[in-house]
Amino acid sequence: QVQLVESGGGLVQAGGSLRLSCAGSGRAFSNYCMGWFRQAPGKEREFVGAITWNGGSTYYADAVKGRFTISRDNAKNAVYLQINTLKPEDTAVYYCAADTHELLRYCSVRQYEYNYWGQGTQVTVSS
Question: Is the pLDDT of residue 82 over 90?
């Protein structure tokens, strides 16, 4: 069983920055690909980015490349999403998710590959 809790969301002006955190539980957390997804009002949930179990590789959606950075600290069972130069279209609920296939060389961008999800944290960007 894996539990994930996101934090760090809030209301921010366009151009600002936020750092989202995802605290995980479970013995094998450090062996999992971790993904970030978001769901904007009236839209389907979409892939934002992912990081391999050792942090060696990261993946990003085209819409966020260059502005979002994913990192992890396995000693703390934590994953982070640094969001810079926020835009109003970044307004969404942000979710972290775990793919519990251990020690994958590559992370999936597909939601169905991630079998544990956090409750989400709201990010609202004002123009």
Answer: yes
Task: Give the strands of the sheet with 78-83, arranged side by side.
Answer: 4-7, 18-24, 78-83, 68-73
What's the average model confidence in pLDDT over 9-34?
96
Written as one string, the DSSP assignment of the chain is ---EEEE--EEEETT--EEEEEEE-STTGGGSEEEEEEE-TTS--EEEEEE-TTSS-EEE-TTTTTTEEEEEEGGGTEEEEEE-S--GGG-EEEEEEEE-STT-SS----GGG--EE---EEEEEE-
Mean pLDDT value across residues 32-49: 97
